[in-house]
Each structure stands twice: as structure tokens, then as C-alpha cells.
Specification:
Keywords: 2Fe-2S, FAD, Flavoprotein, Iron, Iron-sulfur, Metal-binding, Molybdenum, NAD, Oxidoreductase
GO molecular function, one term: FAD binding
Oligomer: single chain
Number of helices: 37
Structural class: alpha+beta
Helix content: 25-40%
Distance between the termini: 73 Å
Pfam families: Ald_Xan_dh_C (PF01315), FAD_binding_5 (PF00941), Fer2 (PF00111), Fer2_2 (PF01799), MoCoBD_1 (PF02738), MoCoBD_2 (PF20256)
Protein name: FAD-binding PCMH-type domain-containing protein
Number of strands: 45
Cofactor: Mo-molybdopterin; FAD; [2Fe-2S] cluster
């Protein structure tokens, strides 16, 4: 028996021949060990897509290669034998980008950049097989990739340029209307309302300037690998072996018996198809026993497809994608189209390209088990002990009994789909409550009988025979299915009855912004829509994040986390963990230096001052709290060992919810925060014609930054430290590191190159969850230590946006004018204070939203619970405040019989009025944004069209909502200062150091543009240098939407200081080049460097001493469509007008607007943080926590930057901050859906569900509200 024991594959242009490699090593770990760090590790479960690569497989019979996308984090390395792996680095680099990389980077489709390589490779895989895809095929290819920054619009726009629609029109146009390209449209009014093009420039990207895509120039399958494959055609078995795992991959089934005879009695044998699921399960388990895998991914018999007129044979090693292809090629594909649709609904094409139908079937989870059950799939199994071949049919008892029949050395070899009696198929897949995936497949037969299979209602799929689909609920009740489990069934049935049409891509975008008018001879770039500074590095995989850094002698750390929410720690046993080969040490609270502290936030200069412990101290107070950590030679070993640490607990009763905290009087402060304006509202409600009161609960929200918390701590000479960390506040990280070790800050240099997203989650203490433990470990071991949290660790160990429970009472007069309001808000701070009191202060201080309430009182309570400590998140309390107020306003408007948007317009506060916090509204144009938004959306016409649509449509309804946002900037003198260092080098280039962190928000490119303008230099002569606390000390946290204000002001001040001396010399030597001027300045000892402390100006330019100096405002008109039979909804159009002053960079600002809107949209419609009654987090992974994808982007997404300079005298080139304000507009989606539901009835009782519906608007909630109103 010939057996090859060398793993052979190519990665890009490099050949690898490996022996004794760990067979269950993942591809992503291998790639990263070889320096190919473009494949990121965002989730380790094949959901985020940041690790996407392309795999090429050579077909010996057809003499061609097929390319698929795959998740490198799931793929076991043995699966890649004789494959061609293509990574993002292999198709281009910043100097010579592939067209996919170029269009994504220059088309503004990359912000933090962590997800960008994955998107690039997903699109690249599609183009390798289909050079001119349809737009809907592009969406399908991208749905397995997540982005938290961009809102997806620029990604889709960039990639739609490759669509078949654009094959013959320049390089392509993503925003086509009526089949025309944007470069050749006949008149500006094709896109834009009359008159706007006289004022605004349209379109951030000129696609005609890009290189054309030529599919003939792609990488070829390596000829050397083809030769190797041809030589190995007669090989029998491929095998890999290490101490713990042996894998055999037989070429045909006849060799399997030989393998089994070789194995010793008692060997733990796993028969696998791809090995992907087994590796995933074992990685999560505590199992370290040796095992043997027999993988059939190369087995010829199990990879066959046979298409006959009335049956389809599918080999057991075929992937779900290959099964889908087989159905689509069948002569019966018309009657199978709904089953093809169901397979297309699989969560990720990258996973489906590798996951096999057998693995899916035997898991009993997902779509294929229901499909197999409805089709009565005929499965052929072979027993290698007896040589017996038998047939199993997937019937009602299959999932209960198959383990007794497919056991030991019995495997599935293939299956047959019998189509002889199939007449019609139906399918549906639904997620009524976001964590309760259910599906249905019905097969109607020619003899009048039918089979309906359902999954997600019980442990195993259910089969119901010869029952009409409309009678399913009655039948399932007979089977004892609880009513609460059947809540989503009506939606599922209704969806199954709908025809599944292949929808053509419909995507229109528009960006309007003020054109710049640079004077001749001036190089300044302020106002230009330039790409992100690192965009080319993002899309080529060249950008390095903390985890990508290569540090000599580096160890890796994994956290040991609490499995209880509230308990005493009785004992911690690390003995089994420390026995594992490669484990170096365990650390906990006892390893903190004597002069150090376990609670660094108690230092008076900590931002914020707070009480979060690094390690649990004899008591755990939250599920997922850090108890200790394992340090090992690799991350994989550390994580495996951490699972072997045994912790004994004495359980205590946890406080989980806000209601629990209120009952237990568990608060962070003795007294609540109270603000009021005008008279006591209780005395004024009697003057109101209409009053509403009630409560609304707003769930928490995960930051879902793509790069998890990460840090590398490197001990240097003489007690000094270099710390690489993903933080929004290098200064705070430096302070905390110093007090943890009990040394001076001057001994510590914190370096931050970039962040893979932040959104507030890396602003304060929570970025220390990785860094602080790694620091203590590195100090103990005197070696560099890296800690990169897994997605699970990140989600259970850190908190997010504070859940809020709001009580409201709001009243108006007969015209709709507000008179009085009384509000109470309770926020869930979690187990430690973090910045909860600051967040609560923001909730109360902005509780009036965008409105003027003459008599208002707002009371806020900070609740302490045994859940993860919540922290800063984009909007910082204002999303909660805005939503509670808007919720009350919407309800009041409907009670008063006034359109909600009319009610809002009537009550908007205006410039000069006073807010609840006592500050005057300054530099504010909300009313102008509102009016311009109505024009952009053509509001009046839109309202009429929606009313007509709703009158004529029976199952679909549309709704409209207009809301506004008002965000005050800046945030107080302490946070309004920055130190910058501007250095002109002798060759005329310029380096700038700031303390602000680039996390995707475009801070660096805006700072470069300010410097370019102030120095009058081409921007390519200037660069931003990474954050380092040894250059720029004591800089406030990067957040609050004011980074460009404070750093831009300081940079301008430094440049002006330099040019005060160089400027006159430049005039004197006006015939000389800039480089000559710099050389002469040096010779005359004129300073070429300036270190400047910049304090954003207030009183000195006529501003107030405290409170907001200006307000960034905006308005949105959102239209949605709902299916009243299923509860699904779609964003039809979103029109946003935002006042950003004179934008420093329209592309960056519009990107922030779109991304912010979609982030809040997710919060309103799908994202939810759920705990069980014991305080265990249930939404603990991207698999369990739903995020918006490319599928959720509006059909029409239009954004206009209002032409309106910031008149505040201290503003940086008349600009305004933008990061958080547009997030508040995403709440409009909630009210638009509510508006669509409301179209079903003119009146309803106070207790109606629609009156109390809360976010997220799950399909079940929407359908429940619709059903009630239809009655």
C-alpha cells in the first residue's frame, strides 16, 4: 500500500512540502506563521469573512482549475493537499494593485481595513469563475463577509463596477439608473434634483479613471503543481501524523480497509468528509486524547455526481455548494428551484464551499437536514468491518436512530435524490427572533401526497406527511410542540408559499458635496475626497495590526474566564493545563508586583476614574470575568490549556437585569442624576390636550469591531517597556501599565499604528483586558507576551452599549406643540463602574433630543449588575436618549392625529434656545438640514407614492420616517487639547506625530490634508507617524467625534509656526524648489521642527467657557417595505442631509455618515445582547449575534453634505466633527417600520402591541403587530 506522507501545496508563488505538520492546524495559523498576515482572525468560526482566501483545485479529467473562496480560520491544513492557495498578498501590492484591490481602496470601501482583505478575496474568487457577474451574484458572494465601519455602500459600489451590466461601459459604473453609466448620462437631472448640481459636486469616485479588468491576466494554476498532480494519479493514500493526530486520505474506498487493519485496537477513529467541523469542535473542547481521522475529501467515489432524468446521485464528500450546482444542472431544475434558493440562503458561501452535505445532515442542524427529510433522501452506507452495503432513507426516525447504524467503521458513501414522483417543491428559511433559525421544505408528489420537513422547532427535524401546509400549526400542536416554539411558524408558512424570484440587483447611490476651489499654485488638499491614508495597504494585506507584528521570543496568552456570573472562587486547579506540552506558565492576581495594583482605574488621572479589577479577587462578579491566564508557545496551545484549568465555585445569586438591580437597590451612586428646565412638568400636564406615557427598553449593543482586543508587551532594558496595543488612548494605556507595575510612566512607551475598529470599545479600560494581563505575564516571565482575545472571549469579557429602560410622559397642545415632559432612564452599567456615570450624564443632558420641551425633568439611575461592564460606544449615551424621546414623540403624534414628521418639525429646538443641560444651542442649522432633506427625498411626492402603494398592495406595506440629529461639540477643556510634532526633513518631506489613534474614522488623512493646506505642499510629501507616547504624551482619548478638531487645530498651529519663518524665505527664494528652500532654511538655522501643544480655542475667539461650541446636525428620510405575512423588512431608500461645515474630506465624512446610520439600523432591527437568568451571555459570538450584511443596504442610498461653513471662529478650516452624529439617524428605520405597520389601521387601542413594540424589530415582532392590526 503506497502512502505519501508529505503535504504538498502552493501559496501564491511559493511551494510548500511539509512533513510531520499538525494535521488539524488551520490554514490561517499556517499563513500567519509564514508572514502572510493579510488573512485576519476576526471570529474563528467562519462568520466574519476576514480570513477569506481563494483555493484552486486542479481537475485531472477536465484539465482545468476551479477556484473557491474559503475561510482560512476553519480549514484544516491537510485539506489543502495539492491545492493552490491564493491570498490577498498574492494578487497585488500597494505599488501594483489588482483591479479589485484598487477599486475598493480608491473607491473608499475601506475604513479600519481589518475586513478589507476578506472582501477583496471574496470578490476575487467570484471573478476567477465568472469574470462578468450579475449584481445579485456579487451580493451573494459578499454575504459571508462582515464590515462594521462602512455601511457596505462603497464596497458594493466598487464591486458592482465588475458586473456584466458594465462590461462594455468604460470601467464600469456602480450607480446606474435606467441602464446608463454615470460617466455618459445625458444631463445632471438624471441623478439629482434640479438645481443641486449648480451647488454640489456629485460622486466621490470617478470610475472611468481606473484600470480595466482583464481576466486573461490572472494568476495561472502553478504548472509545477499540475505536473505533481499528474505524477501522483496512481497514489493510494495521503497521510499526516503527529503525536496526537493521524490523518489518512484514501484515494478510493478500497484502501480504507487496509488503513483500518493497520490501526491498533481501541484507536479513536473519526470518519470525516472535510474535517472542517470536527477540527472546529475539537478546538473548542477539552479533549486532548490521540485520535485517527480518515478523511474522504480525496475519495473518488465520494466526490462523484451523476445526473439522470429522474434522479441525482451525490457523493458523500461533496460540499453544499457542489450539491447546489448539481441541482442547478439537473434536467428537473425548474421544479427544484426553491431548493436551490434554500441552499443559496446558506449563511456564507465560503463555508458552503467546504462544508459537506453529510456533515450538515448528521449535525441535524441547518437547511440540508430538512431538505433531505422532505425528499426522503436515499443514503448508501458501507460497513468496512463486514463489507456490507445498505440503504437508509431519511425518514421521521432517521435522526433519532442513525447513530446506531452509522457507527464505528460505517460511513455514508453517497446518496440518491429520487425525483420520479416530485411535482412541486417549496422552501422557506426564517429567523423570527434572530437566534431561533427555522426552516421548512415541502415536497408535493404526483400522487397527491406531500412531505413537509421542518427544522429548528425541536432537537431534531420533524416530518409531517399528507398535511396541507396551512394546517401545519394544528398538526405540530398535536405533536406536542409548545406554542412559544411555533411563534415563527406562520411567517415560515407564508414565506414558503411565496414564489422565489431571482431579483435583479437594484442599487442606486448618490453623494453630493461642496466642490473645492483651490487657487492656482496652491497644493492644499482640504475639501478633496481623498482615500484613507492606509487604504492601499488595507486592500493588499500590507497593513499590520497588533496581532500581525513579529516580535522575537514571543509567547502567547489565553484568558481563563469565569463560568459563573456571581460566585465565590473555592479553588483553581491548573495542574492539567500546565502538563500540556508548550505551556509555559499560569498567572493571576498573585503575580501583580507588590508596588502595583489590580485596579489601575483608581488612579486619579485615569480616564475614566473607575473600579474595574484586572483579575477576579476571591469572588467572580460576572460571567466571562478574568480569573487568570495561561501562557504558552502558541495561541492554540494557550487556548487549549486555558480550557483545562478547573475552577471550583460556590454559587451566589446574580443580579442580571435592570429590574433585578432596581429591586435590589443596586446602583453605582446613592442619588440619581437629575436635570430639569422650566416648571415642574407634573404641574403642566393638566394644560396638555394630549398626553402619552409608558416605558420602553433598549437593549445593549456590541461594538463588534473586527479586530478583537489585542496587545503585545515587550520588556526592554533597565525596566523599560514597549507596549503595542489596540487602544484609542495611548496615554491612558501608559498610565494604567505604570500603576499596574508600580513604576513611572517614563519607563513605558505605548505604540499604536492603527486599530481594526474601535467605536468606543477600545477607549478606556476595556482595551486593558488583553494588555494588562499580558503585561503582568511578561513582567513575570521577562519575555514578550501577546494576548489577542478570541471573538468569544472578547464578547463575554467586555461590555458594549448600555442597555436602557426609559419611562416617559410627554404632552402637547391641540396643535402638537410640546408643553411638558417627564423622563426616567435606568442604564445597566454591569459589574464595574467604567464610564457608566459619564454615559448616564450624557443620557440625561441630551434627554430632550432635538426638541424644545419648555417644561421637562429628566432623572437617571446607574444600575450595577453581574453582567459584563458596559462602556463607551459610538454616541455615548445619546442614542439611548434620542431613542426614548423619539419613541415618546412618535406615540404622541399618532395620538394627536398628526404625522410624526410634522410633529417633529413643529418642535425642533433652534439656534439660541437652551437645552435641558442649561447650555445654549450655538452654530446649529438643524432646520436647514431638515428642509434640504425633504427636497432631496422629494418628501411630498414620496408620501403620496407610499399611500398609493399601501392602498394597492395586500401583503407588502411601506412606511416613512423623518428624524433629525443634533450633536454638540466639543466636550470640555480637558478633552480639547493635544500635542503634535511636525518635522520637516532635509529632503523636503514631512513627518507628523499625533496622539490620536487611526481606527478607520479617517483621522490621519484629515490631518494630512490640514498639514498640506497649511504648508502648501502636495499631500504625498507628508506622512503620519504611528502614535507613540514617547513623542506625544498625555493626549486625551480619541473619540467623541472631535479628533480632527483638536489634532487638526494643533497641526495647523504647528505648521503656521514653522511657516512664519520658512514662509518669508520661500518668497525670497520663489524661483527655487521647496527642497532647496528647506536646505537653505537648515543652513540659516531656521527651525524645521515644531512641537506644539494645541488647546482648542474658546473664550479667546468669543466662545463659551463650557458646553458645546457648535453642533453637527443632520436629517434623514427613510423608507422601508415590510411583508405583513412574514414580518420581514427591507430598506428601500435612505436620504440623508448632514451639516459637516466645510468638510475636510467629503469621502471620509460620507463614509462616517453611511456607516453610522447602518450601525444604528442594526441596533434597531437585529442586534441584541441577551443573558439567561443565571447571567450567562447567550449572544457570545458572531454566529449568535446578528449584524447587518450587504443584504441590508438600502436600494437607494443618497447622502448630501450641506453647503454650510462652520462659523465658529476656532473651527479647523470651517469644518465640523462627524463620527457619532449620523449614528443617531439610524433610529429612523425603527419608526419607518412602525409607520408601515400603522398603515394597516387608522385607530387602535392603547394596549395594542404596536403601541409598545420595542427594538430590535425582529420579524416575529413585526408580524405580531401586523396580525393584531389586521384583525
Amino acid at each position: 500500500m503506497s502512502m505519501r506522507k508529505t503535504l504538498i501545496f502552493f501559496v501564491n508563488d511559493q511551494k510548500f512540502e511539509l512533513e510531520n505538520v499538525d494535521p488539524d492546524l488551520t490554514l490561517v495559523s499556517f499563513l500567519r506563521s509564514k508572514g502572510l498576515t493579510g488573512a485576519k482572525v476576526g471570529c474563528l468560526e467562519g462568520v466574519c469573512g476576514s480570513c477569506t482566501v481563494v483555493i484552486g483545485k486542479w481537475n485531472h479529467n477536465h484539465k482545468n482549475a476551479k477556484y473557491i473562496s474559503a475561510n482560512a480560520c476553519l480549514l484544516p491544513i491537510f485539506w489543502l493537499d495539492l491545492c493552490f492557495v491564493i491570498t490577498v498578498e498574492g494578487i497585488g501590492n500597494p505599488e501594483k494593485m489588482h483591479p479589485v484591490q484598487e477599486r475598493l481602496s480608491r473607491g473608499h470601501g475601506s475604513q479600519c481595513g481589518y475586513c478589507s482583505p476578506g472582501f477583496v478575496m471574496a470578490m476575487y474568487a467570484l471573478l476567477r469563475n465568472n469574470p462578468y457577474p450579475e449584481e445579485n451574484e456579487i451580493r451573494q458572494a459578499l454575504k459571508g463577509n462582515l464590515c462594521r465601519c462602512t455601511g457596505y455602500r462603497p464596497i458594493i459600489e466598487a464591486f458592482n463596477t465588475f458586473s456584466s451590466k458594465n462590461k462594455s461601459i468604460c470601467t464600469g459604473c456602480p450607480g446606474q439608473v435606467n441602464g446608463q453609466c454615470c460617466q455618459i448620462k445625458s444631463s445632471p437631472s438624471d441623478f439629482v434634483k434640479d438645481g443641486l448640481t449648480d451647488i454640489y459636486e456629485q460622486g466621490l469616485t470617478k470610475w472611468k479613471d481606473f484600470q480595466k479588468y482583464d481576466p486573461t491576466q490572472e494568476l495561472v494554476f502553478p504548472p509545477e503543481l499540475i505536473q505533481t498532480i499528474e505524477k501522483l494519479q496512481n497514489e493510494e493514500i495521503f497521510s499526516l501524523q503527529t503525536k496526537h493526530t493521524t490523518i489518512y486520505c484514501p484515494k478510493t474506498l478500497k484502501y480504507v480497509k487496509n488503513i483500518l487493519q493497520k490501526l491498533s485496537t481501541g484507536s479513536k477513529i473519526y470518519h470525516v468528509s472535510s474535517g472542517q467541523a470536527l477540527r472546529f469542535d475539537l478546538a473548542k473542547s477539552k479533549n486532548t486524547d490521540p485520535s485517527v481521522w480518515i478523511s474522504y475529501n480525496k475519495c473518488e467515489e465520494m466526490r462523484r455526481v451523476e445526473l439522470k432524468e429522474e434522479q441525482i446521485l451525490i457523493g458523500a464528500a461533496l460540499s453544499l455548494s457542489e450539491v447546489r450546482e448539481a441541482l442547478a444542472r439537473s434536467e428537473q431544475k425548474e421544479k427544484l428551484k426553491n431548493l436551490i434558493w434554500l441552499l443559496d440562503e446558506y449563511s456564507s458561501i465560503h463555508v458552503g464551499n467546504v462544508a459537506t452535505w453529510t456533515g450538515s445532515l448528521l449535525s441535524a442542524f441547518g437547511d440540508f437536514p430538512a431538505l433531505a427529510l422532505a425528499l426522503n433522501l436515499k443514503i448508501y452506507i458501507q460497513n468496512f468491518d463486514t463489507d456490507e452495503i445498505s440503504i437508509l432513507k431519511v425518514g421521521n426516525d432517521f435522526f433519532d436512530t442513525y447513530k446506531t447504524k452509522i457507527t464505528g467503521n460505517t460511513i455514508i458513501t453517497h446518496a440518491v435524490i429520487d425525483l420520479k414522483e416530485v411535482e412541486v417543491t417549496r422552501a422557506a428559511k426564517f429567523d423570527p427572533e434572530l437566534r431561533s433559525l427555522i426552516n421548512l421544505v415541502e415536497v408535493e408528489c404526483t400522487n397527491g401526497k406531500n412531505r413537509i420537513a421542518l427544522n429548528g422547532f425541536e432537537k431534531f427535524p420533524i416530518l409531517v406527511e399528507n398535511v396541507k401546509i396551512d394546517d401545519l400549526e394544528k398538526e405540530l400542536k398535536k405533536l406536542g410542540i409548545p406554542e412559544e416554539k411555533l411563534e415563527g411558524l406562520p411567517s415560515l408558512v407564508n414565506m414558503a408559499k411565496q414564489e422565489k424570484k431571482k431579483e435583479e440587483g437594484h442599487f442606486e447611490t448618490l453623494q453630493l458635496f461642496q466642490p473645492i476651489d483651490n487657487k492656482d499654485g496652491h497644493y492644499g488638499s482640504v475639501g478633496r475626497p481623498l482615500a484613507h491614508q492606509y487604504a492601499d495597504r488595507h486592500t493588499t494585506g500590507d497593513a499590520r495590526y497588533v496581532e500581525d507584528l513579529k516580535i522575537p521570543d514571543l509567547l502567547h496568552l489565553a484568558l481563563v474566564l469565569s463560568e459563573e456570573a456571581h460566585a465565590e472562587i473555592v479553588n483553581v486547579d491548573t495542574s492539567e493545563a500546565l502538563k500540556l506540552k508548550g505551556v509555559v506558565a499560569y498567572v493571576d492576581i498573585n503575580d501583580i508586583p507588590t508596588k502595583g495594583t489590580n485596579v489601575p482605574g483608581t488612579h486619579p488621572m485615569s480616564i475614566p476614574p473607575e473600579d474595574t479589577p484586572i483579575f477576579a479577587d476571591k469572588l467572580v462578579i460576572s460571567y466571562g470575568q478574568t480569573i487568570g491566564a495561561i501562557i504558552a508557545e502558541t495561541p492554540e496551545i494557550a487556548r487549549k490549556a486555558a480550557k483545562l484549568v478547573k475552577v471550583e465555585y460556590k454559587k451566589l445569586k446574580p443580579i442580571v437585569t435592570i429590574q433585578d438591580a432596581v429591586e435590589a437597590k443596586s446602583y453605582f451612586t446613592v442619588e440619581p442624576i437629575v436635570l430639569k428646565q422650566g416648571e415642574d412638568p407634573d404641574d403642566k400636564f393638566k394644560d396638555c390636550a394630549h398626553v402619552v406615557e409608558g416605558k420602553v427598553y433598549l437593549q445593549g449593543q456590541q461594538h463588534a469591531y473586527m479586530e478583537p482586543q489585542s496587545a503585545i508587551c515587550v520588556p526592554e532594558e533597565s525596566g523599560e517597556w514597549t507596549i503595542h496595543t489596540a487602544t484609542q488612548s495611548g496615554a491612558n494605556a501608559q498610565l494604567h501599565a505604570a500603576v499596574i507595575l508600580g513604576i513611572g510612566k517614563h519607563k513605558i512607551n505605548v505604540r499604536v499604528k492603527r486599530l481594526g475598529g474601535g467605536f468606543g470599545g477600545k477607549a478606556g479600560t476595556q482595551c486593558g483586558r488583553a494588555r494588562n494581563v499580558a503585561l503582568i505575564a511578561a513582567n513575570k516571565l521577562k519575555r514578550p507576551v501577546s494576548c489577542v482575545l478570541t471573538r468569544y472571549e472578547d464578547m463575554v469579557n467586555t461590555g458594549g452599549r448600555h442597555p436602557a429602560l426609559g419611562y416617559y410622559k410627554l404632552g402637547c397642545d391641540t396643535s402638537g406643540k410640546l408643553i411638558a415632559g417627564k423622563f426616567e432612564a435606568y442604564v445597566n452599567g454591569g459589574y464595574s463602574q467604567d464610564c457608566t456615570l459619564w454615559v448616564l450624564g450624557a443620557v440625561v443632558a441630551t434627554g430632550d433630543g432635538t426638541f424644545h420641551v419648555p417644561n421637562i425633568k429628566y432623572t437617571g439611575y446607574a444600575c450595577k449588575t453581574n453582567t459584563a461592564s458596559n462602556t463607551a460606544m459610538r454616541g455615548f449615551g445619546q442614542p439611548q436618549a434620542i431613542f426614548i424621546m423619539e419613541y415618546a414623540m412618535d406615540k404622541l403624534a399618532r395620538k394627536a392625529g398628526i404625522l410624526p414628521e410634522k410633529m417633529r418639525e413643529l418642535n425642533h429646538a433652534v439656534e439660541g434656545q437652551t437645552r435641558i443641560d442649561g447650555h445654549t444651542i450655538l452654530n446649529d442649522v438643524l432646520s436647514k438640514c431638515w428642509e434640504e432633506c425633504k427636497k432631496l427625498a422629494d418628501y411630498k411626492k414620496l408620501r403620496v407614492e407610499i399611500d398609493e402603494f399601501n392602498q394597492n398592495s395586500t401583503t407588502r406595506k411601506r412606511g416613512l420616517a423623518m428624524t433629525a440629529s443634533r450633536f454638540g461639540l466639543l466636550h470640555g477643556k480637558t478633552f480639547e487639547q493635544a500635542f503634535v510634532l511636525v518635522q520637516i526633513y532635509l529632503d523636503g518631506t514631512v513627518g507628523i506625530s499625533i496622539g490620536g489613534a487611526e481606527m478607520g474614522q479617517g483621522l490621519n488623512i484629515k490631518c494630512l490634508q490640514v498639514a498640506s493646506q497649511a504648508l502648501n505642499l502636495p499631500i504625498d510629501k507628508i506622512t503620519m507617524i504611528e502614535v507613540a507616547t514617547d513623542k506625544t504624551a498625555n493626549v486625551p482619548v480619541t473619540g467623541g467625534s472631535q479628533g480632527a478638531d483638536i489634532h487638526g487645530h494643533a497641526i495647523k498651529k504647528a505648521c503656521d509656526q514653522l511657516m512664519s519663518k520658512i514662509g518669508p524665505l520661500r518668497k525670497e527664494l520663489q524661483e527655487k524648489s521647496w527642497e532647496d528652500v528647506v536646505a537653505e532654511a537648515y543652513n540659516r538655522c531656521i527651525p524645521l521642527s515644531a512641537g506644539v501643544h494645541g488647546q482648542f480655542p474658546r473664550e479667546e475667539v468669543g466662545g463659551p467657557s463650557d458646553g458645546a461650541l457648535y453642533h453637527t446636525t443632520g436629517a434623514v428620510c427613510t423608507v422601508v417595505e415590510i411583508d405583513i405575512t412574514t414580518g420581514e423588512h427591507w430598506l428601500k431608500s435612505v436620504d440623508i442631509v448632514m451639516d459637516t461645515g466645510n468638510s475636510l474630506n467629503p469621502a471620509i465624512d460620507i463614509g462616517q455618515i453611511e456607516g453610522g446610520f447602518m450601525q444604528m439600523y442594526g441596533h434597531m432591527t437585529m442586534e441584541q445582547v441577551l443573558w439567561d437568568d443565571q447571567g450567562r451571555l447567550m449572544t457570545d459570538s458572531f454566529r449568535n449575534y446578528r449584524l447587518p450584511t450587504v443584504s441590508h443596504v438600502p436600494d437607494n442610498f443618497r447622502v448630501m453634505l450641506l453647503k454650510n461653513p462652520n462659523t465658529y471662529p476656532g473651527a479647523v478650516y470651517s469644518s465640523k466633527g462627524i463620527g457619532e452624529p449620523p449614528l443617531l439617524l439610524g433610529a429612523s428605520a425603527f419608526f419607518a417600520v412602525k409607520d408601515a405597520i400603522s398603515s394597516l389601521a387608522k385607530n387602535w387601542p392603547e394596549e395594542a402591541y404596536i403601541n409598545n413594540i420595542e427594538p430590535p424589530l425582529t420579524p416575529y415582532k413585526v408580524r405580531k403587530a401586523c396580525d393584531e392590526l389586521k384583525k
